[in-house]
Amino acid sequence: TYVVTDNCRGCRYTECVTVCPVECFHVDDAMTYIDPENCIDCGGCAPACPVGAIEPDYRLAADKKFWIDVNRKRAAETPVLSARLAPLPGADARKLALGR
Length: 100
Ligand code: SF4
Description:
Elements: E1 2-4, H1 16-19, E2 25-27, E3 32-34, H2 45-48, E4 54-56, H3 66-77, H4 91-97
Iron/sulfur cluster binds next to loops.
């Protein structure tokens, strides 16, 4: 499954939702999460993310593996995101800070 990680927090550009064919994405006030039960591993969302927040689970660094559990838990607790939202305030500044 693919996993949303910390780069999304505070940005939440939500380009991912426009490419996902199976409505995997859930959302809260800070970021998006992928429902691992729905993800078909198409890989479309990872390159679509302007801040590189999305990676396949097997490629996550050891210190980012906990995001697998965060995505599973938060996807179960939050609503499906079916259309793009405006990025969060400060998203562009954060993107620059991340060197993107
Ligand atoms: Fe959706 Fe594909 Fe990304 Fe999985 S890998 S969340 S199916 S766009």
